[in-house]
Amino acid sequence: MANFHSYLRLTRLTPLAAALLLAGCASFSPDGGMAEVAALADARTGVPDALSAGDGEDRLAPLLAQPLSADGAVRIALMNNPGMKSALAALGASEADLVQSGRLRNPGLSFGRSHGSEGHEIERGVSVDLAGLLTMPMRLNIERGRFEQAKLQAASQAVQLASDTRRAYFTAVAAVQTEQFMQRALVSAEAGAQLATRLRQAGNWSRLDQARQQVFYADAVSDLARARHQATAARERLTRLLGLWGRQAAFALPERLPELPARAEEAANIEAQAMEQRLDVQMSKLDAQATASALGLSRVTRFVNVLEVGYTSKSTSAAPRENGYEVALELPLFDWGTARQARAQAIYEQALQRTAGTAVNARSQVREAYSSYRTAYDLARHYRDEVVPLRKTISHEVLLRYNGMLASVFELLSDAREQVASVNAAIDTQRDFWIAQTELQSAINGSGVSTSKD
User: Fold this and answer.
1) What is the greatest pairwise CA distance in the chain?
2) To which H or E segment does residue 279 belong?
3) What pLDDT sits at residue 200?
4) Do residues 314 and 122 make contact, with C-beta atoms less than 8 angstroms apart?
């Protein structure tokens, strides 16, 4: 190798020396890009330091010791979800590709010995991939762009996981609230059915009135069974997103959904925010830039595909030692690289159109998400401020009339049936609002509205 270095100095191949120096700078980062991923996720999930905190029973225990909040559920998911851990581990492979692109291909060594009438002959050679050295800076730039994309992808998965977790959390809490209400409704229906049976036996009610109360009770039984299953299914979905099992899966949920905010958020400049903050838009831009860099590399290597330079030494027993060098070059006699360049250009055009399509979709999705959010807020307020109070007023008035013997038991039980429908609808609208708010934040900060079911 000393002779090879002397050969490089003698020929003064400055590009080679520069490439060698550049190759020595390629190394792994201290955290594998985790700090940047955590910063991107923190700014978009509303739960700081969740990714950087790591996992572990000691960190989960305080969060599981009390009824979960939405932010607490997101924190657990970011710390503990196996899919999220897998996405973060994938950063290592991308960084390894980046480091590998900045390292030289191992030099080739050759040795030959032959015998003849004039004695024996020995040939020695060392070769290095000169084309790889010269294109190393461009390959480094390409892999650096891909590593940045990998970090954005990991952050995007974190934001999506946070969105999915919030959605599952509000669904689970609403299911708990509905199940509890249906339990109370079943008690009321059972009491009505028993009363109807006694009245029927006393001859004060018709068979039709009794049948109506019996079917109300039967419906309440089936409704409670469905509500219990929905509560179980919603809880299990949340459990999967949290990555919990065993005793950890016995976490507690609050009995009611959070109250509605005092006022809805204004649309303002949500489209501009989406263009600036959405990670899929940023990834699409990086993809176009990386494709452009690859196109530049394709042009550089259009004519020169294999270029190797090396040191050779030859000696025989009957003559002095001979030194020199050799260059191996692939001649573009049949393939001039036009097809590769045309393909690279077409791929670049694809990347540009994908970027434009991503931007158009992002703007549309954020407008649609805001419409859903505002509609859900107005409906939830309508039920909270209008429908439920009116239903309570009606129930109170019917009860007063029943106590004053101005209304029958049938009217009282009929009102109870109507109240069940109204309260369930109010719970659903409140749940839909919090889910719509989650979808809006996902449309602004993440990669759009999730369609995943698990």
Assistant:
1) 133
2) helix 279-300
3) 79
4) yes
